[in-house]
Automatic annotation (TrEMBL), chains A, B:
<keyword id="KW-0378">Hydrolase</keyword>
<protein>
    <submittedName>
        <fullName>Phosphonoacetate hydrolase</fullName>
    </submittedName>
</protein>
<dbReference type="InterPro" id="IPR002591">
    <property type="entry name" value="Phosphodiest/P_Trfase"/>
</dbReference>
<dbReference type="InterPro" id="IPR012710">
    <property type="entry name" value="Phosphonoacetate_hydro"/>
</dbReference>
<dbReference type="InterPro" id="IPR017850">
    <property type="entry name" value="Alkaline_phosphatase_core_sf"/>
</dbReference>
<dbReference type="Pfam" id="PF01663">
    <property type="entry name" value="Phosphodiest"/>
</dbReference>
<dbReference type="InterPro" id="IPR023116">
    <property type="entry name" value="Phosphonoacetate_hydro_insert"/>
</dbReference>
<dbReference type="GO" id="GO:0047400">
    <property type="term" value="F:phosphonoacetate hydrolase activity"/>
</dbReference>
Length: 416, 416
């Protein structure tokens, strides 16, 4: 069923992509701190990945901040930073309409995707995401297949570019809180390549397993081992494979194992008085079992912006807080869209999460102890490429490559 | 020649160490970004380290800032941060005496070392450092062996606790700009354990190889492979081995391979006018072939401190600059000694170094292109322990462990 694969160049957001005639598969291994690969490979349980990076490339790249899923997935499919594409979290406070709104819809996306451009240039594009919440952004204006594992059995030809997904993939629609939610994404990718249904794929996994298990746990090792089998099948099918992560993952607990949380709205009110602060946790999403809406990054809206410097300087020296920026500095240093952050942006330490107030965060739903992300210590993630990098991209890899360069590296970096 | 090994507890800077009756060896693998281990292990060239961490522990720890050698070595042997031990670089500006002074002498150390405490408690302690510059700080007030590879053949019993080092180790004094400079340190450690000359050792390597070669270069792979052989011998001798790094290492070059430098004194004068600024590069040391005194961390002394905020805010949004702190914030967030930093502390990006003015930096001496450290992107380093961690230290490893907890982990973390 293999058909001719288009090698027509395509362009998106100022970058040009010159694809080879091979299937191209980019994987976002959600929440894959490098330690997950280190540990699983240490026990010789990722033989395909090992062989893949021996032939190709393994290194570290810098993600977009905040180190959240939607932010980085939007960056990966556009090739640009949040300052350009506009997705700065799952949630933001709309200061014009004075309401807190979800940012899951493509209507918030300010850049076109390279996937849409590839499809327009003649590639058969498929997007498979674990969580339905990402499907709208990832498939924005795109002709092709766009499904989620979560709702695989609801895909219809006219809306998803495919139907009978379970039969095609050979697996049932998985539970979202499971290893299978991510494995289904990879299996769908394998099936689509094998059956000639797609030749440029973006496979975006989910981090339920990483939120729940540290790298040395058998559940995690078995999960990465199962991922490795699917990666092996993609390589057997002749695909050029690139993989990265949206963010890392760290335990955010005290010495007794309980969550290590700083409730920023609470501490600001205790110190400066009530009713002056609105803290937004942009990690908030409907999938509560992962993290209880607690990450290492929040934004603060002030009712009296003239006090910005005073409040910033106080916050900056509170234990657990590692970085505090005013809006102008966050726009430059953290590459944020000015209209979708607050007056202050606050990041916390490797083992610390920041929240709003206790009543906003239900930790009883967590499976396991608190592991989360969002801050600086989840910014650096692995990049893996199945084919040798050419001289230009070797040089680029040695600079400050980004996780949202992954299509650039996979498509252009492996050209001779 | 093995004699009884003391298990008497010892205490330093508020921490208690309960050593086992085995030889204990802590290695500081200078400049070992995790990528060096990843890449060498990928090619199956560190079999002993692989077996060691399969039995024990491998994870990431946070170093002290600035991510320089002396700062982190002083932290490792005291178990505390620069705010406590006072060593904040190789160089600082003494504002009282108005002079720039080297900080290589133990007279600048404000905390006792755990090595001295261990020796006082009856352990046979040996310190072996590649560079002579570190010997004074590491062996402060310590009874035992203290030598450098650089001047191994000059060691005398009364001043170094040992003589005839070349005969004992079985290797000649190495050139300082070589792989052998570090390998000699490890070989000396093996010889001292084997011959019963020491039972608690600190082996501090040098990063000439990492400054000069990226992880995938054959020179680097062969170097780590040679390190692995010595680690294997230490394990064969029954040692409990812990290893970490003082800092990571990144290429600091533009797309054309030339050094990516921001001369901070220059840009400040261009913008704010002349004669108001003194920029100190605390990485400066006599070993010029490594980095040309360019790292990702400088401090700035202002002739008019009332302009601190204005200058800080301007610097914070300059491309390449990632963090700028005033003194009070640097003391808290970066754990610095207030009297040995400047009015401002400036950190730069993963691929950027900060310097003073071009005339202060001789890059012609570099062997290879510019690879350096000092900033946030060289802060996270590996920690490797040869024996399983007990429950308490497993929990500790999952929080925010530090590279200067390495003796704590190696000594206390492996106790049943």
């Amino acid at each position: 069923m293999m058909s001719t694969i288009s090698t027509v160049k395509f362009e998106a957001n100022g970058k040009t992509y010159s694809p080879a005639a091979s299937p191209i598969v980019v994987i976002c291994m959600d929440g894959s701190a490098d330690e997950y690969l280190d540990t699983t490979m240490l026990f010789d349980r990722m033989p395909n990945l090992k062989q893949m990076v021996r032939n190709g490339f393994r290194g570290m790249v810098r993600g977009a901040l905040p180190s959240f899923t939607n932010v980085n997935n939007a960056s990966i499919v556009t090739g640009v930073s949040p300052a350009v594409h506009g997705i700065s979290g799952n949630f933001f406070y709309d200061t014009l309409n004075r309401e807190e709104v979800m940012m899951n819809s493509a209507s918030y996306l300010r850049a076109e995707t390279l996937l849409a451009a590839a499809a327009n240039a003649g590639r058969k594009v498929a997007v498979v995401t674990a969580k339905e919440k990402l499907r709208d952004i990832l498939s924005h204006n795109m002709k092709g297949i766009a499904i989620s594992a979560e709702k695989a059995n609801q895909a219809r030809q006219d809306t998803h570019g495919i139907e009978n997904v379970e039969a095609i993939v050979g697996f049932p629609t998985p539970a979202i809180y499971s290893a299978d939610a991510s494995l289904f994404v990879l299996r769908a990718g394998v099936a689509f390549v094998e059956q000639g249904l797609a030749d440029l794929l973006y496979l975006s996994l989910t981090d339920y397993m990483q939120h729940t298990y540290s790298p040395e746990k058998e559940e995690s090792l078995a999960f990465y081992e199962a991922m490795d089998r699917e990666i092996g099948r993609l390589l057997e099918l002749g695909a050029v494979v690139g993989a990265t992560a949206d963010h890392g993952m760290n335990a955010k607990v005290k010495a007794d194992g309980s969550p290590n949380v700083l409730f920023v709205e609470d501490i600001l009110e205790s110190h400066f008085g009530t009713n002056g602060f609105r803290v937004i946790c942009p990690i908030t999403d409907p999938y509560v079992k992962h993290h209880g809406a607690l990450g290492s990054y929040v934004v603060v809206h002030l009712s009296d912006p003239s006090r910005t410097d005073e409040i910033k300087n106080w916050l900056a020296v509170q234990p657990g807080i590692t970085e505090v920026y005013d809006k102008a500095t966050a726009v430059r240093v953290l590459e944020q869209p000015a209209d979708r952050i607050g007056d202050l942006v606050v990041l916390s330490g490797r083992d610390v999460v920041v929240g709003r107030r206790p009543e906003y965060h239900d930790l009883s739903a967590l499976d396991g102890s608190l592991r989360s992300h969002g801050g600086r210590y989840e910014e650096m993630v692995p990049m893996l490429i199945s084919h040798p990098l050419n001289a230009q991209y070797k040089m680029k890899a040695a600079g400050d490559p980004r996780n949202f360069d992954i299509f650039d590296f996979t498509v252009n970096g492996t050209n001779p």
